[in-house]
Design a protein that fits this description.
about 220 residues; 10 helices; 2 domains; about 0% strand; Arc Repressor Mutant, subunit A; mainly alpha
Amino acid sequence: MNPTASPRRDARRNHERLLAEARVLFGERGIDAPLDELATRAGVGAGTVYRHFPTRDALIRELYDTAVGDLHDFAPEIVGAETGWRAIELWLERLGAWVAESPYLPAVMRRMAELDPDYKPGAEFADTMDGIVARAKSEGALREDVTAVDLGVLVDMLGSIGQYGGAYLPYWRRQLTVVLDGLRARPDLTPLPGAGQSFDAFHDMSHAKGPKAAPTG
């Protein structure tokens, strides 16, 4: 019997519990919520929190990296969809629901942009997103003036429903249906005004979203 097996399992269990409770706590009270409260919610001592996450920023970085891992988990189903249009549907459905159910994410993204401006793991998905859009257009299913960044913005818009808490989540597919109908190719479309935003500009903007302090002086 390995005497270290149980302590390691306990440590891993505590680590996962802390991450799960941090998502809930930060969603409710923001990412500057007291870490002592996190310890209480997770049923561990304050020292355990700091053994796993020496600083608040270390916790935020892991939440961010875990979110990027979630995107990797979504990718096979979306990319492997039977049609490009179905991939678009899954993209908006899966990611929109994920953001709506993760109200802590915008603040985590903003903090990571402050901590490490050059860290942009999401950029690895840019070519995949462009490929899905090109595939749906080649089928004649997606309107020609829509870009992958447009879809990224729509994910954020659908995800913003999370601001209402869980009360509206049973109804959010109403907005998803409106959005999907607006993306379908058809002859009577109103052209989208102007050129679409670049992926890099969207990435930087999405990681900086939130209220800005009013200028002084």
